């Protein structure tokens, strides 16, 4: 088989960006014809690594490499192997360093490719991947550190969805033995660096990006079971999670992920987490009352309410919600505002009513403020049903009376009342009360 012409490959990569359809099709056909040739994928990586090459060609090479890996890395019995074993070893030996020293646009494509390769070869056929990644934590370069963390997140996030099996436990154990302690040390070091960076906004942005990725990796590694390392170092993690929630950083993704992390512990590891939960209830409560009703805050609000819902329905934590003023404050300041129909909701309903209904029905996998608030009501009712009914009955009656006073103007009040009734497992009792008192 003739050697590939690097210039021809680069030219055709450039032509895939042409505005002329015929030129693009010919270039795509050429690249498809050479995809199975030896050294093709290695050549693509060389183009990506060529700082003198045109930036668009390098991006095209990275995308082509990623797509080729997606199509061809998995070895299927009785089908031709388009990537030779020698090329596979060369790629695995070069791609991590290349990814970490590449600009962000290229790094993202290569990180995705590493994840695809990792799904097939890690850990059995790529045992040195984690040690290679971990050594980069000491670089002090947040571009490199974030590249490592993004790759780790891509590799480990499937642990959230995999069925339990001996093979899965073996892999997670392999990962924890090599990655858990370095991750904890990195988290502490980055939190200390955040305290030192002061008003350096550019550096703080990189630091917060790292912390967000660390929190995502933490969630994945803790999802299946509580690892011994994280149980022993829970104080380090929870102390810093609490700091991040109470510093008013306005980092919505980060706050949302931390809410997910502590909700996971509250739901699955409640005995081990019991001593930390009261402080998180207070912190997340303060986060909720200080967060605006804008659509961009929906994810953090729904996750925060979800945490409170998880805590409220567990016997261990029912004492946190026993005071009448606490219940009243949660119902009035968290549930009612997030049950109400907002202008943003009205826009979604007008633009796509089917989508609005789909995401709001019970059982939908889409998180919304209204569904989260409804879950919180059900959680509170588990141990405090009668008092919750008394609190909400007055609100429902007031909403319906407001609607009756001016049905055209105050239709949203009726919608909120109906929503509160509809999602409540005790709605029959409340409905009877409201019917009598309206």
From TrEMBL:
Q: Where, per UniProt, does this protein localize?
A: Cytoplasm; Nucleus
Q: Which InterPro entries match?
A: ARM-like, ARM-type_fold, Importin-beta_N, XPO2_central
- Domain spans labelled Importin N-terminal: 27-101
Q: Which spans of this chain does the record mark as coiled coil?
A: none
For this UniProt record, the keywords arranged alphabetically read as follows: Cytoplasm, Nucleus, Protein transport, Transport
Classification via Gene3D superfamilies: Leucine-rich Repeat Variant
Q: Name one GO molecular function term.
A: small GTPase binding
Provide a GO CC annotation, any one: cytosol
GO BP: protein export from nucleus; protein import into nucleus
UniProt signal peptide? none
PROSITE patterns to which the protein is assigned, alphabetical: IMPORTIN_B_NT (PS50166)
Keyword Repeat listed = no
Q: Does the keyword Transport apply?
A: yes
Q: What is this protein called?
A: Exportin-2
Source organism (scientific name): Desmophyllum pertusum
**Taxonomic classification:** Eukaryota, Metazoa, Cnidaria, Anthozoa, Hexacorallia
Query: Gene of origin?
Result: CSE1L_4
């Amino acid at each position: 088989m003739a050697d590939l012409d690097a210039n021809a490959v680069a030219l055709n990569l450039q032509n895939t960006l042409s505005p002329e359809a015929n030129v693009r099709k010919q270039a795509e056909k050429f690249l498809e014809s050479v995809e199975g040739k030896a050294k093709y994928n290695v050549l693509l990586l060389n183009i990506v690594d060529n700082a003198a090459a045109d930036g668009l060609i390098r991006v095209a090479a990275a995308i082509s490499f990623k797509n080729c890996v997606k199509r061809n890395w998995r070895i299927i019995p009785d089908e031709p192997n388009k990537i030779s074993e020698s090329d596979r070893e060369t790629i695995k030996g070069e791609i991590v360093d290349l990814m970490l020293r590449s600009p962000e646009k290229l790094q993202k494509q290569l990180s995705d490719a590493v994840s695809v390769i990792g799904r097939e070869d890690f850990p059995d056929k790529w045992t040195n991947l984690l040690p290679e990644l971990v050594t980069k934590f000491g670089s002090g370069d947040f571009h490199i550190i974030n590249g490592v963390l993004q790759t780790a997140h891509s590799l480990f996030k499937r642990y959230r969805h995999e069925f339990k099996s001996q093979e899965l436990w073996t892999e997670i154990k392999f990962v924890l033995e090599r990655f858990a302690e370095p991750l904890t040390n990195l988290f502490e070091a980055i939190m200390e660096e955040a305290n030192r960076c002061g008003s350096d906004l550019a550096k703080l942005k990189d630091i917060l990006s790292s912390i967000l990725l660390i929190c995502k990796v933490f969630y994945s590694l803790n999802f299946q079971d509580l690892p011994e390392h994280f149980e022993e170092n829970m104080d380090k993690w929870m102390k810093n999670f609490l700091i991040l929630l109470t510093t008013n950083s306005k980092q919505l993704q980060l706050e949302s992920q931390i809410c997910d992390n502590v909700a996971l512990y509250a739901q699955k590891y409640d005995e081990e987490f019991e001593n930390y939960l009261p402080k998180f209830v207070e912190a997340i409560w303060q986060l909720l009352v200080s967060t605006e009703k804008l659509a961009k805050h929906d994810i953090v609000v729904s996750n925060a309410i979800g945490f409170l819902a998880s805590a409220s329905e567990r016997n261990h934590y029912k004492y946190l919600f026993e005071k009448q003023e606490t219940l009243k404050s949660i119902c009035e300041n968290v549930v009612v505002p997030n049950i109400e129909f907002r202008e943003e909701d009205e826009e979604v309903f007008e633009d796509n009513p089917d989508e609005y209904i789909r995401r709001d029905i019970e059982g939908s996998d889409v998180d919304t403020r209204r569904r989260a608030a409804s879950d919180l009501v059900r959680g509170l009712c588990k141990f405090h049903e009668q008092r919750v009914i008394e609190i909400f009955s007055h609100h429902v009656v007031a909403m319906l009376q407001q609607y009756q006073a001016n049905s055209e103007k105050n239709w949203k009040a009726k919608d909120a009342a109906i929503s509160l009734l509809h999602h409540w497992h005790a709605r029959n009792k409340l409905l009877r009360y409201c019917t009598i008192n309206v």
